[in-house]
Every structure is written in C-alpha cells, then in structure tokens.
Amino acid sequence: MEAVVQFVQKSNANTAAVALFGAIGLATVALKTLSLLRVLVDVFLRSGINLKKYGAGRGGWAVVTGASDGIGKEFAFQLASKKLNLVLVSRTASKLKAIAEEIEQKYNVETKIYAMDFAKGADQDYQDLKKLLDPIEVNVLVNNVGTNHEIPTPFEQETNEIMKNIVEVNINAAMKMTKIVVPQMIARKNGLIINLGSFAGLVPTPYLSVYSGSKAFLSSWSQAIGAELAPMGVHVQNVNTFFVVSAMSKIRKASMLIPFPKPYVRAVLGQIGISGGASTPFTSTPYYGHALANWVIDNLFTRSYWVKHNYDIQTDIRKRALRKREREAAAAKNQ
Fold it and tell me: DSSP assignment of 134-157, as one string?
C-alpha cells in the first residue's frame, strides 16, 4: 500500500512539473508572439513624431553629414521636402554644390554647404562649422557620415590608417558634431539627433572588428546621451541599420532586407520616436525588413550563434574579395 501511495505521489509530482513547464512554455510563446505583433504594429500602423515639432515649415534647419551620396543624400532631399532648410556637410564641394542647387530649386528652401574630410578630424573644420551653425536654428542633426574596412580583414592585419579613419569618422565625428549643435537645442528645449547605427553594433562582426566596435560605441553612446537629453526636450535616436543599397555597402540589388535609400529614409523619418524592431532604449529599426531581422536576432538562437553566423558570412566575403584582387592584379600585370 505504501508503495502505491509513493507511486501516486511521484506521478502527481511529475504531472505538476510537466504542467508547470508547459505553462512556462506557453507563456514564453505568448510573450514572443506579442513582441512580434508589437513590431508589426510599429512598422506598419504607427506614425512617428511629426517633423513640424523640429522646425519643419517654420524656418528650422537640419544638418546632414555625409550628404553627397547614398543615405545621406536621400536624408537631405526628404528633409527638404518637409520644408527644413539644409546644411550639407561632406568631402566633395562640387557634389555638395550640385545637390544644394537642386534642393533649392525643387523645394524652395535655403541651403548651406561645408566641404570637409571627416577622416582628417581637423579642429579648424569643426571650428568653422560651429561658426556656420551657431547663428541659425539647428533643429535636426543627422550623423550619417561613416566608413568601413575595404574588405573583411583580421584585426592584426588591418592597417593603422584604416583603423584611425573608422574611429575618426564613425565615432569622433558624431560626438564633435553633436557637441556643436546640442547647446542651442538644450537652450530651446527642442531638437532631434539621428545617429546612423548598424546591425554590426548589435551583433559583433568578426573581420569587421573596428567598424563593428565603432557602431557598438554609437549605440551605447546614443543611449547614454539620450537619457541625459530627453528631460531637456532633445530626442536622440540611434537607427539600427541593416544593409541598404549604397556605395559603402557595395550592394546594387534591392530586396525585402536590403532597400534602396529612398524607402529606407522614408521609414526613418516617418517613425521618429518609435522603436520598431529595436529592443534597446533610444534606438529604432523602422524599416520593416530590418525590424523583422532585428526581432529574429533578439528572440531566436543565442548571441554566440549570431557571432558565429557573422564569422561565416565575413569569411566567405573575404575569400571572394581576395580572389577578386588576385584576378585584378593578374590582369594588370598582363597589360
């Protein structure tokens, strides 16, 4: 009889354990499902803060770095279409002048240009920019300028020049530009700072270690200053970006995960203040394909898996890039 009682007690305990783990599993699935639904609502149904709050249509100015090509150029045109005056900053004066003239004719807004090489990090350039920006009402700053490794490269083989350029352009430029404009934003208790981040800052990317580290810095720094500046009326948003068709990405064909700059920037500007697929504070992943990818990374598999996944991708890209270099070298030798 005692053995029967023990068997029943043990069976009841096993049943309770199974029920408990089943309930936990259902709760986990339910929470994951709700988080995915939130992402879908964010990217397809919700609208962000209207740019009128940041001076659009009432004489406000936006500053865009890396404005002569790709995403930066698209930011310039779409901000101008919202009736923000533009300060365009990039390396090539001729490109900036042509873009500024087109924007003025098309959207009837004012423009200013300043040509500088962010990789040099010259103090005089930043001093001159401060003189240019202090007298105008800068409501929006888009820290878009960026650079990357030429090809995926092991850290110990990367050149000091490329490492220096990545740090100067991706980190120092964002901090220095923000330092210039944020005092006047604080004084007016109004401003928007958009930092162009990367999935490489979300998941470490082997063979792009310096670039990946620079974007991880940008993510952490954006969260820190975002918390500091929010009570003062200044909104900081690190935009977690996957691939976009551009010269820097070297991708020419668009897909669900890789948009052209126009729809990508439209998503960013249409969802200011909405997290989309991002799970970290003061961060957004507004483009639907990127948002879903961000959700998958956050909710499926482990970070070790994703780091290994990035390792495999970059290893393959590096092999193909090295073979291409060999072919080009052989072709040049035979000419």
Answer: TTS-EEEEEE------SS---GGG
This prediction has a pTM of 0.91
Q: Residue 138's CB: how many other CB atoms inside 10 A?
A: 24
| Token output for 254 | 């668009």
Residue 7 has pLDDT above 70, yes or no: no
Per-residue pLDDT for 283 more than 90?
A: yes
- Which of 211, 181, 180 has the alpha carbon at shortest distance from 196? 211
DSSP letter at 53? G
Token readout for 113 is 């240009």
Looking at domain 48-315, which of 3.40.50.720, 3.50.50.60, 1.10.1530.10, 3.40.50.2000 is its CATH number? 3.40.50.720
- The residue-averaged pLDDT of 168-176 equals 98
In angstroms, the CA 198 to CA 213 distance is: 10
Which strand (E) or helix (H) includes residue 90?
strand 85-90
Asked if the model's pLDDT at residue 3 lies above 60, the reply is: no
Mean model confidence pLDDT for the chain = 93
b/e per residue 234-257 (b: at least 16 CB within 10 A): bbbbbbbbbbbbbeeeeeeebeee
Choose among 228, 235, 62, 223: nearest CA to 137: 62
Domain ranges of the chain: 48-315
Q: What is the DSSP string of 240-272?
A: -----SBTTTTB----SSS--HHHHHHHHHHTT
214 is in an annotated binding site: no
* Euclidean distance between CA atoms 17 and 24, whole angstroms: 11
Enumerate the active-site residues: 211
Q: What percent of the chain has pLDDT over 70?
A: 94
The single-letter code of the amino acid at 330 is A
pLDDT of 91 > 70? The answer is yes
Distance CA 217, CA 239 (A): 13
Using the structure block, give the residue that is written with the tokens 């609208």.
Answer: 47
Handedness of CA 88, 90, 96, 99 (dihedral sign): negative
pLDDT over threshold 90, residue 26: no
> Six-digit token pair at 133?
């920006």
